[in-house]
Amino acid sequence: MVFSSYTFLFLFLPITLCIYYIAPGRNLKNLALFVCSLVFYAWGEPVYIVLMIFSILNDYTMARLVDHFKDHKFKSKLFLVISIIINLGLLGFFKYYGFFVENVNSLLGLGLKQHNLALPIGISFYTFQTMSYTIDVYRRKIPVQKNMLTLATYVALFPQLIAGPIVRYKDVAHELEHRKETVKDFTEGARRFMFGMAKKVIIANPMGFIADTIYNGDVTEHGTMILWLAAIGFTLQIYFDFSGYSDMAIGLGKMFGFHFHENFNYPYIAKSITDFWRRWHISLSTWFRDYLYIPLGGNRVKALRWVFNLSVVWFVTGLWHGASWNYVLWGIYYLVLLLLEKQLLGKILSRLPRVVSHIYTLFLVVIGWVLFRLEDLSVLKTVLKKMFVYESSLSSDFLFRYQSLYYALPFILLGLIASTPILKKLRGEEGTLSLSTVAIDVLGAVLFVLSIIILAGESFNPFIYYRF
Amino acid sequence: MGKANRWVKFYQKSQMILFIGILIVPVFYVLISGQNEVSQRENRRLNQLPTFEVSQYFDGQFQLDMEVALKDQSIGAQWMKTTYNALKRALTNQVYIGLSYLPYREDESMASANEGQDSDWKGDENTVTPGDISTWDYNILPMGNDVLKIQSTNTLIMPSNTKDQWQPVLDNKSQNINALVSQYPDIEFYVYYIETDHDVNFIEALNNHEIRDYYFTSLSDRVNTDSQSVDKLEDITDYFFATDHHWNMAGQLRGYQRIVNLLGEIPSSNVDVVTLEDAGYIGSKAKKIDDFTYEDNFGYLINRQLKYKTYVNDVEGPINQKLTYDQGYYSKEQGVNHYALCYGYDVAKLTYDFNQEDKDNLVIFAASFSNPINELIASHFNQTYVLDMRHFQRDYGEAFDMTTFMATHDVDKVLFTGYYSFHANDVFLVE
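Predict the joint structure of the above. Result:
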């Protein structure tokens, strides 16, 4: 089930809100939330829900054992390692086994078989969440959670279950047992949800249509201009899709009394790649920082080791996004840029006019998204070449060849505007009431209704030759 | 401060109620008002809320069915779809108009659709290459969903097909017909190809009849052929519905006359062309883009002197509602599928029995194009069987078998008639 669906909006969410707010007491509320979250997950994964439940049980048990043996370093560490192996093992088997087999077969000429099992929805997110819980228990940053329902609620919590943000247990530990639902939080959450929905449906979907139409066909047919259009389309699609979803998750969390951290901070106004990565998918980058980069030594090591640490992090970051070499290439691309900025460009950029550093950042980010989008390396090579070696897109049928994209083009401008914090600045502080506040809120409601209309409209499916 | 706080709280509560209201109303509406069965606008049955079945849940079908049903049944569903499509069309048009001011042509010598937009330039007819239609006077506007519109006449047109695109399927068809010709040497075979907008490349201003010509040259010499060609713009705008892929009354009359001539008969002069003033017709192309702003005039051809019996799938009964329409009984609701209601739905087998034993028996292999004129053609024969290969499995529980049919029916002439979708489509092959 996705948030931008009628099933979620008009069946699941109202029923869940009703059940949740009727349930008396914190434990029953958590139970209601947990059960509804299971229904949410099982809607899209009726079989693999077992996997998620297994993951919960695994980390509940391992964390209890880690805590029980906290004075026995070896045993405590052993159970931590077992938990990590199981979590990474699950992720590796479902997400990376095919990639691994394909490369081994290619390199060594073996005939290993793939399993062809579908990737369970959200596995990259919930395994990281459960791992972070057990690691933090081991590090004694949080007390172990002895109530399985509370832990299960944390893991399965539907707002962030399938697409993040990656919520650390320590950030919601208090709220799991002591949260207070308020009208203020509910309305802020609803508003955030509505704007998130609008980002996804009104901007991300048309941008995705532009990118898919151009990239999914024969890319050799397109000239430079069209390929740049596709790159910009995908740049906007991925941001509004992901940040829109994060907004909806954060908004939904608030409706139930949870306060998740921000996952995006207007990354497209960044003035350097370093700045960009402080604003993009914050929950993932901080996860890798805290659970991979720092344990490896971070930057408190010799230069060569530091480069190695960064390389590992960016290799894994790339691979986390997908089991394909283009994602690794994307990770390495940012590794190189970050190293260059840290060693050389950073100081230069800070002295340049903001608009120059902004253009520099956006240009590199757009190129990065092209690497990210195109899994076929030969297609990627062709596209990059055509983007930088001019080839005309014009032809006698140009105006009609791309007619299916026309309706989506105006939304590029909307996307560029919405990439900036202009609406946030106009609205003002939460809890205040002014003309601009009301105007922005009305806009949010209008955009939400428009999103609902668009979702219905996209299901328009005339039967042209019905009995005909 | 307290008063301001109260206003803020009131405002927040109002927002909460509004939000919850938006979430609750659609499903409440369905529960109270019940589910809708059919959408005239989309020309289909609307998806109904599914009942839960474990097997369907595990294979994901229940979830898909639920989603599409909610979108079909929620309050204002049709209005939302219409609004969305109208916005999409408007954006498509406006962006196209904006872009059309750009210098987009790579090669000045290439003909293009925009040549037709410049009313001062009609081309040099002495140097126009064969198939070049740059002298045709038309402006086309993209309408979304691959549909274009000839602005001056509101005629909707579809992307053109090429011979290369359809050659394998055309080969299958011609081989199929040629095999029948060899198998049945005593029967006369006829092919009537109806050219439509699909045969004309309005974008690149080319009309070279390549599909028809290739098809005809692939057929046996024993097959008698004729076509309803598109040689000028008016062959589209005057002979086809603006909103539909079918021919209109003028096209039907011309088709009837040419087909009957092809079959060696003389068209009747008792055929009346009736145009209904209050029955607007919105056809398949308009429905594809959900544009109900323009309606065609609807009507029918009728010969009131004909006396015959009709059978639908071998059961005696009326084939269409033409007589009912002729008596003035027809729906005036917008979007009603008059083509199907008046001329008859597509079924596996129609039989026209004119009890004229001195005349030949005819088989017509067709799709929907012949529906308006079947009885007019049949009036020149004794028994006429109109066969639609698509529906035999549905209507008879088994595929059509030519050998069995020929063993049980006395046939003198066989006609294949339709537009490209009939001739270049393996589903219409005769087994």
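The mean pLDDT of chain A is 91.
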